[in-house]
Amino acid sequence: MNRRIGRFAMSRQLVERDPETARAVMGRVIVVRCEMMYMYNTLEYMALSPDFDEVPEGMIAPEYDVHISDSGSRIEFKAL
Question: pTM score, two decimals?
Protein backbone atom coordinates (compact mmCIF):
# COMPACT_ATOMS: atom_id res chain seq x y z
CA MET A 1 0.00 0.00 0.00
CA ASN A 2 1.08 3.56 -0.65
CA ARG A 3 2.87 5.02 2.41
CA ARG A 4 2.39 8.66 1.37
CA ILE A 5 -0.48 9.25 3.76
CA GLY A 6 -1.53 12.40 5.58
CA ARG A 7 -4.32 14.26 7.33
CA PHE A 8 -5.79 17.63 6.35
CA ALA A 9 -8.97 19.65 6.82
CA MET A 10 -11.13 21.91 4.68
CA SER A 11 -13.81 24.22 5.97
CA ARG A 12 -17.36 23.25 5.20
CA GLN A 13 -17.86 26.78 3.86
CA LEU A 14 -15.15 26.28 1.23
CA VAL A 15 -16.81 23.08 0.02
CA GLU A 16 -20.24 24.74 -0.15
CA ARG A 17 -19.23 28.16 -1.53
CA ASP A 18 -16.35 27.22 -3.83
CA PRO A 19 -16.88 23.63 -4.98
CA GLU A 20 -14.50 24.07 -7.94
CA THR A 21 -11.59 24.76 -5.58
CA ALA A 22 -12.64 21.90 -3.29
CA ARG A 23 -12.70 19.57 -6.33
CA ALA A 24 -9.21 20.77 -7.32
CA VAL A 25 -7.91 19.84 -3.85
CA MET A 26 -9.68 16.47 -3.94
CA GLY A 27 -8.19 15.78 -7.37
CA ARG A 28 -4.75 15.60 -5.74
CA VAL A 29 -5.66 12.98 -3.11
CA ILE A 30 -7.35 9.62 -2.61
CA VAL A 31 -9.51 9.95 0.50
CA VAL A 32 -9.48 6.89 2.74
CA ARG A 33 -11.42 8.47 5.62
CA CYS A 34 -13.50 11.64 6.10
CA GLU A 35 -15.16 12.97 9.23
CA MET A 36 -17.34 16.06 9.72
CA MET A 37 -16.08 17.95 12.76
CA TYR A 38 -19.15 19.99 13.75
CA MET A 39 -17.32 21.72 16.58
CA TYR A 40 -14.93 23.34 14.08
CA ASN A 41 -17.24 23.28 11.03
CA THR A 42 -14.57 21.44 9.04
CA LEU A 43 -14.23 18.21 7.12
CA GLU A 44 -11.17 16.26 8.26
CA TYR A 45 -9.60 13.88 5.77
CA MET A 46 -7.11 11.02 5.88
CA ALA A 47 -5.78 10.57 2.37
CA LEU A 48 -3.07 9.23 0.11
CA SER A 49 -1.20 11.64 -2.14
CA PRO A 50 2.14 11.91 -3.94
CA ASP A 51 2.28 15.40 -2.35
CA PHE A 52 2.63 13.87 1.14
CA ASP A 53 5.84 12.59 2.73
CA GLU A 54 6.33 8.84 3.01
CA VAL A 55 5.32 7.57 6.46
CA PRO A 56 7.14 4.58 7.99
CA GLU A 57 4.90 1.67 8.94
CA GLY A 58 3.47 2.00 12.43
CA MET A 59 3.89 5.79 12.56
CA ILE A 60 1.02 8.29 12.80
CA ALA A 61 0.14 10.10 9.57
CA PRO A 62 1.30 13.74 9.70
CA GLU A 63 -1.06 16.68 9.45
CA TYR A 64 -0.92 19.05 6.48
CA ASP A 65 -2.19 22.55 5.86
CA VAL A 66 -3.74 23.15 2.43
CA HIS A 67 -2.49 26.32 0.72
CA ILE A 68 -4.70 27.46 -2.15
CA SER A 69 -3.61 30.33 -4.39
CA ASP A 70 -4.26 31.75 -7.85
CA SER A 71 -8.02 31.18 -7.46
CA GLY A 72 -7.54 27.47 -6.86
CA SER A 73 -5.13 26.83 -9.73
CA ARG A 74 -2.21 26.32 -7.35
CA ILE A 75 -2.59 23.90 -4.44
CA GLU A 76 0.15 22.95 -2.00
CA PHE A 77 0.17 20.75 1.09
CA LYS A 78 2.51 21.97 3.85
CA ALA A 79 3.38 19.69 6.76
CA LEU A 80 2.54 21.17 10.14
Answer: 0.88
- C-alpha 48/C-alpha 7 separation (Å) is 9
Structural contact between residues 52 and 6, judged by C-beta atoms closer than 8 angstroms: yes
CB 48 within 8 A of CB 32: yes
Measured CA to CA, the distance from residue 52 to residue 41 in angstroms comes to 24
| Closest-CA residue to 64 (of 73, 75, 2) | 75
Tell me the one-letter amino acid at 25: V
Residues of the chain with confidence (pLDDT) below 50: none
For residues 43 and 1, give the distance between their C-alpha atoms in angstroms, rounded to a whole number.
24
